[in-house]
Amino acid sequence: MSALSALFVQVFTSPFFSTDFGIVILDLLKTLALLVPLLIGVAYLTWFERKVMGAIQLRKGPNVVGPFGLAQPFADALKMLFKETITPQGADKVLFVLAPMLTFGLAIAAWAVIPVNNGWGIANINVGILYLFAISSLGVYGIIIAGWASNSKYAFLGALRSAAQMVSYEVSMGFVIVTVLVMVGSLNLNDIVLAQTHLWFAVPLFPLFIIFFISGLAETNRAPFDLAEGESEIVAGFFVEYSAMSFALFFLGEYANMILISGMTTVLFLGGWLPVLGLSFIPGPLWFIAKVVFCLFVFIWVRATLPRFRYDQLMALGWKVFLPISMAYLVVVAGVLEYFGWLPHA
Amino acid sequence: MIVQIVFALVSLVLLASAVTVVSARNPVHAVLFLILAFVSASVLFLLAGAEFLAFILAIVYVGAVAVLFLFVVMMLDVDFAALKEGFQRYAPVGALVGIVLFGELGLVALTWHSVSGAEIAIAYPMPAGTTNAVALGSLLYTAYLPLFQLSGVILLVAMIGAIVLTHRDRPRAKRQSLGRQHARMPAETLHIVKAELGAGAAIPSAKTQKETL
Do residues B51 and A127 touch, judged by C-beta distance below 8 A? Predict the structure, then answer.
C-alpha cells in the first residue's frame, strides 16, 4: 500500500506535470476522478429516490433488476438509449437539442469548485461561491430554451413558470449566501468550510439554513415547487416534447442539480468534510458524502409528503416571506459581528 | 500559451455573437447570442484576472437581466411582414440617428486621453496579497461610498417607478389573506346539519351563509 502511494507521489510530482501540457492532463485526471463517482451517484440517486419513496408509501420500490433492484438505473438508461428521439414539427431544431445538454452540462460544471476534502476542489478559486451562484443561475436557460424551442403551449407555460420561479428564489438565496460570507470573510469555499471548524453555520444561521434549503427545492424545480412540470396541470411542463436520450438528459440534469444543491448546503451550513462529534478517523470525503446523502434524503422526503404549491403562494413565499427574513437576518448578523468585534478580516 | 489560445477563441466568439445579435432575424436567437456575448465577456474578465467582476457580470446580466429580457422577447408576437412594411419610410430617420451616434463615438475616440499617471495604475492593477473582491470592496466603500450609495438610490427610484407605472389595482380580483385564513375557526365556517331520515337537510339561507363566511 505504501509502495503504491509512494509510486503515485513519484509519478505526479514528476517535472512533466508542471509543464503546460502536464497541467492540462492533471486537471483532466482530477475531473475524471470527480465526474465518475458523481455520475454514478446521479444514476443511483434515481434508484435511491424510488426506494425511499417506496418505503414512505409502504411499497417496495424497484426490486426486480439485480439484487435489491440495484441494476435498475442501467436498465432505465438502456431503455432510454434505444427509444426514438422525436423532434416536434415547427420546433427550433438546434435549440431543441441544445437545451437538455445545457441543463446537464451546467449541473456538472458547477462541481469544479466544490471541495470534497480540505483543498480537494478541482479549482480552488478565490470566488468559488460566486462561481456556484453564477452557474446555478444559468440553469434556468436550459428550461426556458427547451420550453420555447418545443413549439408547444404546455412546454412554454412550464418554461415561463420556471423562469419566474427561479429568478425569484435566487434573490433570497443570494442574501443567505451574503450572510454566510459576512461571517467567513472570504468567497473561497475551502475557507467557508474551515470557518465552521468549531460551529457549523447551521446553528447560528438556522433560519437561513432552512430558507436556503427550501430555495434550493425551488431552484431545482422539485416538489413542492415543481410547477414547471406540474403534470396534473400542464402535462409535463417544459419537457413534454422530449423523448429518449434528450428526456433522460433533463431527468439526469434534475438529479445532478439536486446533488449540487445538497453539496452547496453541506459546504455552506453543514461543515463540508468536517467530522461530526470528533470522529476524525473516518475520512473527510466520506463525511461529505454522508451529509450530501442526508440532504438528498430530505429532498425526497419532502417530495413524498408535501402537496404542490399554488403559483401565487409560491411567489408570495419567495418575495414576502423569505426575502424580508433573509435581508433582516443579514443586517442583524452584520450588526452583531460589528458590535462585538467578531468581523473576520481576510 | 494556453491562456492566449483561450483568449483568442473567446474574443472571436464574443465578436461573432455581437455581430449576430444585430443580424439575427429571429429576436429570440438575437437575445440568446447576446447572452453568449455576456458569457464570453465574463470569460475575458476572468482571463484578465478580474474574477469578481467576471462572476458578477455572469450573475447579474446573464442570470437575471437577460432571463427577463428573454422572457419578454419570447412572449412578443413578432410579425416580420409588418416589421418590414415601413422600412423605406423610416430608413432615413434611422440612418440619421446612426450617423449622429457614430459621430459622437468618433468625437469621443478622437479627443480621448488618459489621466496622467494612469499608466502606473495599469501596471499595478492590485496591491499584492489582496484578492479581487477585497480590493474592490475597500475602494467602493471608502473613496466612492457616496457615488456607490447614489447609484443604489437611482436603481431604487427606477424600480419604484416601474412598479408605479405598471401597477393596476384590480378591486375584483380574488386574493388569499393568509392571516384571515389562519384565524378562522371551524365554528365560523362549518355548518353541522343533523339530517332527519327521509326529510333531508335544511339548507341555511344565503344571508346566514354570508355571515358565516
Answer: yes
pLDDT digits (tens, 9 = 90+) for A108-161: 888 888 888 877 777 778 888 888 888 888 888 888 888 888 888 888 888 888
pTM of the model as a whole: 0.82
Three cell numbers written together for B175: 386574493
Chain B CB contacts of A160 below 8 Å:
71, 74-75
Do A134 and B59 lie within an 8 Å CB cutoff? yes
CATH topology of domain B1-93: Four Helix Bundle (Hemerythrin (Met), subunit A) (1.20.120)
Q: B24 CB near a chain A CB, below 8 Å?
A: no
Closest CA to B53 of A123, A126, A190, A181: A126
Task: Rank A35-39, A65-69, A242-246, B112-116 by mean pLDDT and report only the highest.
Answer: A35-39
pLDDT at B13 exceeding the cut of 90: yes
- From A288's Cα to the closest Cα of chain B, the distance in A is 26
Residue B129 host element (H or E) = none
Test B71 with A24 for CB contact under 8 angstroms: no
- Alpha helices for chain A (secondary structure H): 2-12, 20-56, 72-82, 93-109, 128-149, 153-184, 189-194, 206-219, 231-234, 244-269, 284-305, 311-316, 323-339
- Chain B nearest-CA residue for A164: B68
Helix (H, G, I), strand (E, B) or coil at A179: helix
Of B35, B55, B68, nearest to A130 by CB-CB distance is: B55
CA-based R_g, chain A, Å: 21
Interface of B with A in 131-170 (CB under 8 A): 131-134
Of A148, A160, A170, the CB nearest to B63: A170
**What does residue B200 show for φ and ψ, rounded to 5 degrees?**
80, 170
Number of residue pairs across A and B with CB atoms under 8 Å?
A: 74
Q: Compute the distance between CA of residue A179 and CA of residue A4 in angstroms, rounded to an integer.
A: 44
Give the residue extent of every domain in chain B: 1-93, 131-165
**Cell triple for residue B148?**
456607490
